[in-house]
Amino acid sequence: MRKYLVAYSISLQETLQRRSTLIMDRLGGFAVVLSLYSFWSALLGDKPSFLGYTRDEMISYVLVINVLRALVFTGRGWQLVGEISNGKISSYLVRPISYHAYALSLDLAQKSVHVVSAFFEVALLAAFIRGGLYLPGHLSTWLLFALSAILASLIFFFMEFIVSSLAFWTSESGGPLFCFELFLQFAAGAFFPLDVLPEFARRLLSATPFPYLVFFPARIFLEKVSTGEAARVLAIEAAWLAVFLAGALYIWRAGVSSYAAEGG
Amino acid sequence: MMELARKYFRIWVRTASMAMQAQLTYRLGSFGFLAGKMIRLLFFFAFVVAIFKNVKEVAGYNLVETALFFLTFNVVDMSAQILFRGVYGARRIVSEGDFDFYLIQPCDPLFRMVFSTVDFLDIVTLVPVLVMVGMVFARLPPLGWTRYAAYAALVANGVALVYSIHVLVTGVAVRTQELENAIWIYRDVMFMGKFPVDVYAPAVRWALTFGVPIAVMTSFPSKALLGVLSPAWAAYAVGLNAALLALSARFWRGSVAAYTSSSS
Questions:
Q1: Global pTM value
Q2: What SS3 class is residue A100?
Q3: Integer distance in angstroms from the first to the last C-alpha of chain A?
């Protein structure tokens, strides 16, 4: 465990050391949030609600997804693709570490910094926006939201790991990973609440793990689901996590056994 | 002059052909990137259409007009991606020392840096966008040819503005061997051009018109077509373009003059 804490600590220092990269990264994310906030603000105008969301709830949804994007969508997929393609992965395979745990440590360090930044951005935007924000009144909601967001983050980590592992078999895995990440962000509700979609599309997406990454955690935060329903969401998230964890481990074993250490 | 233009056209065709062959060689990767670009386009378009099933106007624009803004953003953005893709490899060219060779070849190094790569995947993505622009034109009330001419001229003006920004970024790469941050912050901020500039608060609108002129690149053409852009603003767009072209050319020359070869 200690070695993973050291990896976490070193990665945290590295992330904080590259301040300009971090600031630019966050500035880019802030531009997206500002765009979405402005769009929803203009759309709502003086309307009391839209698709069952009050103005405060819709604006809060936009701000919450900024935090969720920072927590969920900062994976290690592109690094894994690069390390397999250039052979750097070989040096990890001979070390007495679990690559998954090591990658998770690095990922957690990155997420820690990005989530703290996201909170600052949300606070900054909240200070300037017109009208109020919706904040959950019950402590249990905060806990359920936090748990749901952590599970979502782990689901994404292992899901992305599976897609990135394609690099064991092809040097062209960047394309599928790019496609997967873009599709995922839309299907997860990271740009807009999935309530805007037609009923059949919503039902279809609900049968997939994608809405459990952003849409359902955001709905828990906005107290749009009862406690019982929130527990059901958490149970489904846990089930998806088990599926993707098992899948990632299986694909990793298969990938390593076919790995030819190109360029290593 | 014509001889010079023919020479540069021949160079462009040769480098474009090499880029196309590379993309055709990596079929799975290219397919993934293409599918991702299509998903991004279609999901956003579906989002706009779904929104307008529930509201009549956003910031005073109806569905057809909002679609026009969104599609025009895509025309400007994709045209720039197709033509100026070479900029994304500028840092590597400088840091690996290839730029030294560019300087001694009988071809303008800026031309090689900016135009040497053509993204054919964006050409494929641009086709459905242009078809959709045609469909939007068909749904607009009859407009005079001068409006369409102003639209086309301001789209070209927008692409030229993007060119200037890319030249500035390339100059930064030559001076500092850093690029990723500058180009990605530009990509992220460009996200704000997906919506009409009128959805933003006055301060943001001002910044998008006079600071980072995304509104001039993406919103002005549609506004001119809809007849809500005054001639003074159109003149401002052209003047800004001329000023930025001159500024970026000067910055580029200064960057090359300060270049001392970074790796060889």
A1: 0.85
A2: helix
A3: 28
Ordered by start, the domain boundaries in chain A are 2-258
How do strand A53-54 and strand A49-50 relate by DSSP bridges?
antiparallel
Report the residue of A182, A204, A205 to disrupt the B interface, i.e. the one with the largest count of B CBs within 10 Å: A182
ipTM above 0.90, yes or no: no
**Residue B52 near residue A49, CB atoms below 8 Å:** no
pLDDT digits (tens, 9 = 90+) for B42-75: 888 888 888 888 888 888 889 999 999 999 999 9
Distance CA B130, CA B111 (A): 27
**pLDDT (tens digit per residue) in A188-199:** 988 888 888 888
Distance (Å, rounded) from C-alpha A224 to C-alpha A233? 12
- Rounded distance, CA A119 to CA A124, Å? 9
- CA–centroid distance for B112 within its chain: 18
Look up residue B85 and give its two tokens: 């893709």
Question: Across the interface, do B47 and A196 touch by the CB < 8 Å criterion?
Answer: yes
Domain extent listing, chain B: 2-258
Nearest to A52 by CA among A223, A203, A182: A223
pLDDT for B202 equals 87
